[in-house]
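Researcher: Go.
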Amino acid sequence: MSQIEWAMWANEQAVTTSCVLLAGSAISIAGMFKYWQIGIYGAIISLLIAALEWPRSKRKKGSTVERRFQRPFAQFVNKLGVLGRNYFFRFLVYLLLCVPCCFTLATLLGGICMILTGAIYFIAAIKGEEWMASGQDTSDQKAVNTIQPPKKPPPRPSAQNNIEERSLEGVTMEIAEEGAGASRAGARPVRPPPRPKGASADVIHDVGT
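Model: Structure:
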């Protein structure tokens, strides 16, 4: 059984958390709930989480399926240095950011999702995992061998060659037919030529004399 990469699951959980928190913050602001100002805080935090978690990390084994338009966000995470690569830091960040979201009902679900995300990142950090840029190093990119279409048409015989081939085929067919006819003729029994009637009478007369 292959080793589980916990950071991959934490990344998917974090993207889902940003969506849930953004929806709850919008409901809190639109419904003017008590402490609706926390909704503004949740909306800003959800966008920051989405920008941080949108680029997928490079997997240790197997190929990494990148998200669409993740290269600019990956450069942003690279600029953070150790803070962007270390999963212990992400665990602490999610643990602190979830506290205000737990004071309103609209953002409570988003806060719980952040706690779960931080817990998964904590397990990933214990396992020694860290964020690595996917597709940034040219040495990691595998060369894809594509089959190019032929630039020239295949060689085709000329008209003179076609005429010569047809003539040779005709000659061989005639020889084969003649040989077959000769073999059939040789197989039939040959009847002797008929004797003349006068010859038998002369022979009898000579014997009598």
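Model: Residues 6-134 form one domain.
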